[in-house]
Amino acid sequence: IKRELELRIRRPGPGLDAYCYYLYALVLKSLGYEDQASAALTTSLRQESALWPAWSMLADLVRNRHELEGLVLPRHWMRQFFLVAAYVRLHESGKAELLLNELTAAHGGCLADCAYLMRYLGIVKDQQRSMGEAKAVFKQLFECALDGADVYSNILYVDNNHSLMADLAHQCVLVDKYRPETCCVVGNYYGLRGSHDKALSYFQRALRLRPDYALVWILVGHEYLELKQVSNAIQAYHKAVTFNPADYRGWYGLGHAHELNNKSYYAIYYFRECQRLCNTDPRIMVALGESYSRVSLNEEAKKCYVKAFHLGDPDTMALFRLAELYEHLGEK
Asked: Which residue ranges does the record assign to the Cdc23 domain (predicted)?
């Protein structure tokens, strides 16, 4: 089949309409030909600019800012909604928020209650670590839709909110217990309770329903770390960055897991990749500094701790690590 597709890619036949190009892109994506799938989708959209599934899949295929800027797309109102999804995927939360504000204010604010936009607003607030605002958005959204329930459950997990997590899991199961997002929510519910084996079983069920669910691969990695199965965690995080290389959390998980295996040089590589994708999180800089310190790259470690301090360092961990390093080096 791959050989046939390769020949087809080189010599696409005439007469394909927008819908056929979309189906063609689906097959290409499933076989790993992501660049060719993106090309087929842009061709589809030039023929039928209102084909939303093509916009949606194209957003999922964007791997970096350079690729996004290189896309030649039709001028259509759906393009704005596509850009919201693409910016969020690339963790460009500032650009996504500006565009979301424009869309919700347009046409007299008639889109202010749009579930699609509310979901992405909640994700943007989560990326900006504004947990209170993110929780408020998802709580309002959850009254009418399950969109973003997986991200909402992550926020409740971090917030250690057992009661709201239990309510969310119960409602998701009532609405659609076979939905991948529902399995993710229930997995987070069991993870919050400390039932890591049950959490893994639900996450694995979500992956059977959607094998490219990068968020769940990250959560699987977290659960394996809780069970002290570091090798399995590394495999899960590798899957996460394969399916979504723009999500820094998978790279962070790889760095943390390799530190647990005392492989600091590997950890440095993954933390640097993580920092490249998200250069505003002080926790990443502290983790990178700790890895540098373990291999005696002390000047690099100092720079990381200082930068983490300037980024905010809410736990004051950067200053503590910097003081420890100065003490170790005898720099009173």
From this structure: 16-95
Q: Which residue's structure tokens are 């295929």?
A: 61
Total Cβ atoms within 10 A of residue 2 = 9
The one-letter code for the residue type at 104 is T
Long-range CB contacts for residues 67-75, cutoff 8 Å, separation at least 24:
67/38, 71/38, 71/42, 72/42, 73/42, 73/45, 74/45, 74/46, 74/49
The distance of Cα 289 from the centroid of its chain, to the nearest Å, equals 24
Indicate whether 98 pLDDT > 90. Answer: yes
Q: How many other CB atoms sit within 10 Å of the CB of residue 118?
A: 23
Confidence (pTM): 0.86
Q: Is the distance from CB of 234 to CB of 258 less than 8 angstroms? A: yes
Report the C-alpha gap between 147 and 121 in whole angstroms. Answer: 12
257-268 per-position pLDDT tens digit: 999 999 999 999
CB atoms within 10 A of CB 253: 28
- The span from the CA of 242 to the CA of 218, in Å, is 11
- pLDDT tens digits for range 220-251: 999 999 999 999 999 999 999 999 998 999 99
Q: What is the dihedral of CA 208, 213, 218, 224, to 10 degrees?
A: 0
pLDDT value, residue 329: 85
**How many Å apart are CA 83 and CA 65, to the nearest integer?**
11
Task: Report d(CA 253, CA 156) in Å as an integer.
Answer: 20
**193-224 residues labelled b (16+ CB within 10 A) or e (exposed):** eeebebbbebbebbbeebeebbbbbbbbbbbb
Q: Which pair of tokens denotes residue 165?
A: 């997590």
- 187-206: per-residue pLDDT in tens? 999 999 999 999 999 999 99
